[in-house]
Specification:
The complex is a heterodimer of chains A (405) and B (349).
Chain A (H helix, E strand, L loop, with lengths): L3 H8 L1 H24 L11 H23 L8 H14 L8 E4 L10 E4 L1 H23 L4 H21 L24 H6 L12 H25 L1 H11 L1 H6 L4 H27 L9 H14 L4 H28 L10 H15 L8 H9 L6 H7 L11
Parallel strand pairs in A: 1-2
Helix pairs in contact in A: 3-8, 3-11, 3-12, 3-13, 4-5, 4-6, 4-11, 5-11, 8-9, 8-11, 9-11, 12-13, 12-14
Chain B lengths: L1 H15 L1 H23 L1 H32 L6 H20 L7 H31 L7 H23 L14 E5 L2 E4 H23 L1 H11 L1 H6 L4 H26 L6 H16 L4 H20 L10 H15 L14
Antiparallel strand pairs in B: 1-2
The chains are: A mainly alpha (405), B mainly alpha (349).
Chain lengths: 405, 349
């Protein structure tokens, strides 16, 4: 029997650092204001609301990492899952369907307000489940395709879904998505009157420390995602994903069911995207079709690549860095440049920067900032990434040595 | 386990041919829709079809670039659409600022200016595209295929932002120095000079390309490399040079497409993204790697788009164009992954 101490020891210093970071993370609202008072650096400290957005996007990146990093399936349409999650929240926790009135556990609104109002906590789970279903539906016809075709098809879905959302304000006379205006306001999370007795806010939106509560909830969701992601990686399913990533032929030969395993990676990756999307739309109190464009998919992919495909800590680091640049960093930097008399607005070119990051990382450090050991060895030693049928058809063309040409 | 159940159901359906039946039924519905629309207003139908022809030629030029590169490297060159947009914008600078063509220019000046623009842009962008390959893709020849694809996505963003930096967010268009008056007209069916210019540029370019690929030594080398890289290297073909040539060709085609597009529409830094995706869909529809297929697929997509936006009876309209085009992409990949003209390969896609 291993004791708790043994187990702790076996995790090594990593566990200590992680614990310290989590504690520091949870205490962030307590010291953010004193940090912001620092000379020079103070302006660069992200505010709480910025942190919420950074964490939500990092959560999506960790979800995407399951698809791209573990299973090695390039998904260029992850934004579709974000959209499904956001609109699930919009349907089940707003006044969108005001022809019905149904309340269940909703906080911060009067019982007479029309529309479907479920508790956000239920909506988060529903969003995850619906998005996972969407992932399965998208995956089924497409997952048998080769890697690069899969990328294009996911991109296609990523483009279709926002347009469907934008155009669905009149589906045979029924206003499903409220078109380009989006759906707003969306109910806020909260603990109702029972929570109030325990010192928790009844509704985040009406709380005096609104951002602080959203921040803590976001962090808890991220930790949950990271925990699931780590446990999944070491599970039977996770090992099957990695086997497929490394060598599809060998994995199939050893009895890994390719389609089912890939579909699960889609469904689970989508689940977290959906939860993050629903939470984010509740935080912003709205879901708008203009948010779901291709650049977001690439932005999330860039987080995964920068941090290191398959490496959870890497993806978190990459997500926080890019999220920071996106939400606050580039704008602050730009205004500093303006003060210095340089007329250059880095936010305008942010996707150009992400493009440069992607290309440089792929060329010079494809394993990412914090590489996953196994993935790094794959890149160094080279593995067959040519899938099952290819090998039979044209020989493994990753084997060839072009230096002799 | 719902996923598994669905998978096996889908497999069983595929084996019994029901999936193919559904595909044929869909095609039949489209056919009926076209016939009814034609019967309702034949003149309008033909006019709309001519718009589709013009758009199709532009898609064709871009789709050829995708298919050329895919044939050789098995790489979806994401940056291609953005190279197309940049080429159009540079052509705009050349036409408006350097040559100063406008409505009052005489016919020889316009023809000479357009020829000059065509040559300059095609040469310039063949160099640019070969340069992109040299900088970004060459190092990744032996890396996993996804690495090159991700790099291509990154390059696409970089080029898009180069366009943004030089040309801003505004749309650019050239003065209508090619008259929009009727060139060919039968009854109410008209085809303007402006639209005809697209064909006048595209057809010679396609003939040149076809001659190059079929008859020159370099073209033969290109076909050899796309069939079997290793064997052609053993036969003494310089594979790296051949790949550079393919990228140069693709760049030149994108340049020509940029000019043709500029003559019809206005464009800005992100025009290339969506058009690139549509062109890629066209290449897949025709059978990726197949040059004739790319042009055929592009014409079909051009017609579909024009019919969708121009016809009246039971037409979803331009709001749904994107959904329809990508829906087609997904349907092809499900029903006939090898495309219209592609060979049946055991890969399934």
């Amino acid at each position: 029997m291993t004791t708790v101490q043994d187990r702790l020891r076996s995790y090594g210093p990593g566990a200590l650092i992680a614990t310290a970071l989590i504690v520091l993370g949870f205490l962030y609202p307590k010291y953010v204001e004193s940090l912001a008072d620092l000379p020079l650096l103070g302006d660069f400290v992200p505010a709480l609301s910025s942190m919420v957005i950074m964490i939500v996007f990092t959560m999506m990146a960790v979800g995407l990492n399951i698809v791209v990093g573990y299973a090695g399936l390039l998904d260029l349409g992850y934004v579709a899952f974000y959209a499904v999650g956001a609109y699930t929240a919009a349907w089940f926790a707003s006044q969108q369907f005001d022809q019905w009135t149904f309340h269940f556990g909703a906080v911060g609104i009067a019982d007479s307000v029309p529309g479907i109002h479920l508790s956000i906590w239920i909506v988060l789970v529903m969003a995850g489940a619906l998005t996972a279903l969407a992932g399965i539906l998208i995956g089924l016809p497409t997952l048998r395709l080769r890697g690069d075709y899969l990328a294009i098809v996911t991109l296609g879905f990523g483009e279709i879904i926002p347009q469907v959302v934008r155009n669905s304000d009149n589906v045979f006379g029924f206003d499903l998505t409220h078109g380009t205006f989006g759906i707003s306001p969306i109910d806020s999370p909260g603990f109702g009157s029972i929570g109030e007795k325990l010192g928790l806010p009844a509704s985040y939106q009406q709380s005096f420390q609104r951002e602080q509560w959203f921040y803590w909830t976001a962090l808890a969701l991220l930790l949950f995602t990271v925990f699931c992601s780590m446990r999944l990686r070491d599970s039977r399913l996770g090992r099957a994903w990695i086997a497929i990533r490394e060598d599809e032929t060998a994995a199939a030969a050893m009895g890994v069911p390719l389609m089912r395993t890939k579909t699960w990676s889609y469904a689970i990756g989508a689940f977290f995207g959906g939860v993050a999307g629903a939470f984010y739309s509740s935080f912003r109190s709205g879901a708008f079709p203009a948010d779901f464009y291709f650049n977001i998919s690439v932005f999330l992919l860039c987080m995964v690549i920068l941090g290191g495909m398959g490496s959870i800590w890497g993806v978190i680091l990459g997500g926080m860095i890019l999220g920071y640049l996106n939400v606050a960093g580039l704008a602050t930097f730009g205004s500093k440049l303006q003060e210095g008399g340089v007329d250059f607005d880095p936010t305008k070119y942010q996707f150009g920067f992400y493009g440069i990051i992607i290309v440089l990382m792929m060329l010079f450090r494809p394993e990412g900032l914090i590489p996953e050991r196994r993935h790094k060895r794959e890149l160094e030693l080279g593995v067959h990434d040519t899938p099952f049928y290819d090998v039979m058809h044209e020989g493994a063309d990753t084997d060839r040595d072009m230096s002799n040409d | 386990m719902a996923a598994q159940a669905l998978t096996t159901t889908l497999d069983r359906l595929r084996k019994t041919g029901i999936v193919n039946l559904i595909g044929l039924a869909l095609l039949a519905l489209v056919g009926i829709w076209l016939v009814v629309n034609f019967a309702k207003d034949p003149t309008e139908f033909i006019n709309v079809a001519l718009i589709g022809l013009t758009n199709g030629t532009i898609y064709g030029l871009v789709a050829l670039g995708y298919t050329l590169i895919y044939g050789i490297l098995q790489l979806i060159n994401f940056a291609h659409g953005d190279v197309f947009a940049l080429s159009g914008l540079v052509a705009w600078s050349l036409i408006v600022s350097v040559l100063g063509l406008d409505k009052d220019s005489s016919v020889p000046v316009i023809i000479g200016g357009m020829l000059l623009t065509l040559v300059v842009i095609m040469v310039l962008f063949s160099i640019v595209n070969a340069g992109i390959e040299f900088v970004a893709y060459r190092r990744l020849r032996r890396a996993p295929r996804l690495a090159a694809l991700i790099t291509a996505v990154g390059m696409s963003f970089i080029i898009q932002n180069v366009s943004l930096a030089f040309y801003g967010v505004n749309f650019h268009s050239v003065p209508s120095f090619i008259p929009r008056t009727e060139a060919i007209g039968i009854g109410d069916v008209t085809y303007s000079w402006n639209k005809l210019s697209a064909l006048l540029i595209t057809i010679p370019v396609l003939i040149l390309l076809s001659w190059f690929v079929r008859s020159t030594k370099q073209g033969k080398a290109m076909r050899a490399v796309s069939q079997d890289t290793e064997a052609s290297a053993m036969m003494g073909i310089n594979v790296n040079r051949t790949i550079s040539v393919a990228f140069a060709l693709a760049g030149a085609l994108a340049g020509a497409a940029g000019i043709v597009y500029l003559l019809q529409f206005n464009m800005r830094y992100d025009t290339g993204f969506e058009l690139g995706l549509i062109a890629f869909t066209a290449a897949v529809l025709g059978g990726i790697g197949n040059l004739t297929g790319a042009v055929l697929g592009a014409l079909i997509i051009g017609f579909i788009q024009a019919f969708n936006e121009g016809l009246l009876w039971f037409t979803p309209g331009s709001d749904w164009t994107r959904t329809i085009v990508f829906g087609i992409l997904i349907l092809i990949l499900v029903f006939r992954p090898e495309g219209i003209l592609g060979e049946q390969t055991p890969e399934g896609a």
